[in-house]
Amino acid sequence: MKTIIHDLGDFYDTLFKSKCENVISADGKYAPCQGCFGCWTKHPAQCYMKDALQMACRIIGKTDELVIITDNYYGAYSPSVKNVLDRSIGASTPFSTYRGKQMHHTLRYGKKEKLVVYTYGHITADEEKTFRYMVERNAINYGFREFEFHYLENVNQLEEFEL
Question: How far apart are CA 76 and CA 121, in angstroms?
Answer without folding.
Answer: 11
